[in-house]
Amino acid sequence: MNRKNEYISTIIDIIEKLGIGIMEKQAEKLLLYYQFLVEKNRVMNLTAITEFSDVVLKHFADSLSIVKVYDMKNCHIVIDVGTGAGFPGVPLKIMYPELNVVLLDSLNKRVHFLEELIDLLKLEDITAVHARAEDAARKEMYREQFDLSVSRAVANLSSLSEYCLPFVKKGGSFISYKSTNIDIEIDEARNAILLLGGQIKARKEFCLPESDIERTLIMIEKIKETPAKYPRKAGLPSKEPL
Predict the structure, then answer these.
(1) pLDDT digits (tens, 9 = 90+) for 101-137
(2) Given this model, what pLDDT does residue 181 score?
(3) CA-wise closest residue to 56 among 110, 117, 15, 24
(4) Predicted structure pTM score
(5) Cβ neighbours, 10 Å, residue 225
(6) What are phi and psi of 187, to 5 degrees?
(7) Sign of the four-CA dihedral 182, 184, 187, 190
(8) Which of 96, 99, 91, 109 is nearest to 44 (CA)?
(9) How much is the pLDDT for 114?
(10) H helix intervals, the chain
(11) Largest CB tally within 10 Å, which of 10, 68, 150, 242?
């Protein structure tokens, strides 16, 4: 078996352990994603994780672990807030090609990377948008337009809820990817979530496949419209969480 086939086989094995069916052409796209990520990472700071096995586990499998709390077949349009190098939005698009995906990031050079990546992988119905979440969520074309908002961004749950819930339509969901030991963070975010029109629907703790890496998914359901005053102006959600 040559090196490429070994890589493909590893990707398929790990993704299947999440209970997701994966075709070889999807694994090939994930491999191409990995190669492009590592190449571009040499000249710009996209990720501290560059070993192949680590990227497959900590970026690809982690991104796709959402299936533990959410049926992706129920989703038509998703926004990835603070997407960075495209996680979780791009792996989700590769595995669920029928999705319409918006990748939102505040750093223009990352958006350029994502645009190149989208072209390289020949993905359709996926766009990279350069904007802060606080600004984009006030635009009619984005506000309360999405079935699902996702974020692996590093911020407390109160701030993330203010960034993400305004994008979600009533009846939709916001899912936050977290590590473990977040009981206090969840308790501190309950009031903010309620103010923003959401309620915590599910919490799933698990380990990534073939590892002891503990992760938590928090699923927040949008039960009513977000008041017009949220999100507050740029910077406030992180400096002064609700």
Answers:
(1) 999 999 999 999 999 999 999 999 999 999 999 999 9
(2) 85
(3) 15
(4) 0.96
(5) 14
(6) -60, -40
(7) negative
(8) 109
(9) 98
(10) 3-16, 24-41, 52-55, 62-64, 89-95, 108-120, 133-136, 157-164, 183-195, 236-239
(11) 150
